[in-house]
Structures are given as structure tokens and as C-alpha cells.
Amino acid sequence: MRNKKFSHLIVLFLSIFVILFLLSSCAGIRDESQGFDDTFGGENLDDIDDQVLSDLDASSDEAEVLRLLGITEEDSQTMAQSEASESTTNVPTRETDISSQVENLEEEAKNKDVELSNLKAELAERDRRIQELQNELSNPRTSLSSGAPPGSFQAKYEDALTTYRNRSYKQAIQKFEDLLAVNANNSLVDNCQYWKGECYYALGDYNQAILEFQKVFTFSNSNKLDSAQLKLGLCYLRLGNRERARSEFEKLVSNYPDSEYISRAQTYLSRL
User: Fold this and answer.
1) Which of 20, 151, 226, 265 could cysteine-pair with 259, CB 3.0–4.6 Å?
2) Cα separation of 186 and 176, whole Å?
3) Domain boundaries, the chain
4) Number of other residues whose CB lies within 10 A of the CB of residue 37
5) What's the pLDDT at 38?
6) CB-hemisphere CA count at 13 Å for 58?
7) At 208, is the pLDDT very low, low, confident or very high (cuts 50, 70, 90)?
8) What is the CATH number assigned to the segment(s) 108-271?
9) What confidence score (pLDDT) does residue 225 get?
């Protein structure tokens, strides 16, 4: 019995010794491992681990966002290449846009110049018509002061001109037509025909005005031939037929060299 107890004590003692030896060995290995882990290439491994974990977190977050958006890695690469391509071609595109804008501004400036020229021409034409009307009214053969009786052709002609001057163009047309129908042999019928054309011109009916002005030339001795020729050119100019307008102005210059409208016709020709 005593020998058995002694044997148990020896086994227990050996067991404790082995356990202590193992604990001592593990502590040594941990110390060496701690020394190796703490320093590597002069850097703290804890810092390196933190950076690696941070990069992994960022990478995983970005990948997760792309996954939620339904964008694959290939799509991401394609987008990156597209952005790079746009950055290289953006400068030429901007230069093209600026060039196009400059061209548009130049075209607008030209159009404004044309509009300004047209307005000046229109004002000059109105002045001409006013002056012509004043001359018409002061002409002894057309003036009521010459003693023309009321109701006569001359008095009705004067009334039609006054209606035109008041811008009642449709009423004036009717009055001139009545005069043309009453007496086609009167010395004022060519004037009636001319002013009828002026009424249509004032109304903006340039095609009809052309027909009326052309009829003036049926009166070979009319004092309105050069006026009608000028108006033909202006009608075609208003209709946008620049070639025909040029032809009519050239006829005025060649056929009526003594006309008071020569300089005006030449001005229009210089703009065509």
C-alpha cells in the first residue's frame, strides 16, 4: 500500500514538472514571436495591419457600392477609359463650339446690317412718296385751286389723293378705279393708275402692285414712267427677287437718265 502511494506521488511530480516545462517553452516562443511581430523592416506591424485593414475596408466598400448600383468591374473600367477619352478630346470640342458661336455672331451682325439698310431704304421711300404727293397736290393741273368745279374728274382725283394720304388705301383704290372707269381719256388717268399701284404697295400686296405699275407704261406720255420703274424694282426687292430688282433698277438708270431717282436707283444697285 505504501509503495502504491509513493508511485502516485512520483507520477504527480513528473506531471507538474512536464507542465511547468511546457509553460516555460511557450512563454519563450511567444516572446520571440512578439519581438518578430512588433518590428519588421523598422516598421510597426500594428500600424501596417491597421493600414491593410483600412485599405481592405475601403476596397470592399467601393466594391459593395458598385455591386448595389449594378456596375461590374468591366463597366467600371470602361467608365474610367471613357472619362480619360473625354478629357483628351474636351479641348478641341470647346474650340469648335467657340468657333461656331463666333460664326453665328458674325452672321447675326450681317443680318442686322441688312435690316438696317432696308429700314433706311424704307424711310427714304416714304420721304419720296410724301414729296411726290406734295408735288402732285401742288401741280396746277391737279389742284382744286385751279378752279376745277366740284364733282369734276380733277376734283375726284384730288379727293382720291387725299384718301391715300390719310392711309385709307382700300378706299383710295376704289376711288382711283372709279376714275379710270369714268374717263379713260382724261390726262390724269396715268396718275390714277400709278397711285393705284402705290396703294397696293402700301398694303404690302407687292405682286398686285407690280401689275398696276406695269400698266402705267401703256401711257407713253405719262409723267410717272420713271416713278413706276423705280417702284417695280422696289416691289421685286420686297419679294426677295434680287436679280429681277437689279434688272428693274438698271432699266431706270439706262432708260431715264434724267430722272430724279437715278441716285436712289444707283444706291439700291450698290447694295444688291
Assistant:
1) 226
2) 13
3) 15-69, 108-271
4) 13
5) 45
6) 6
7) very high
8) 1.25.40.10
9) 97
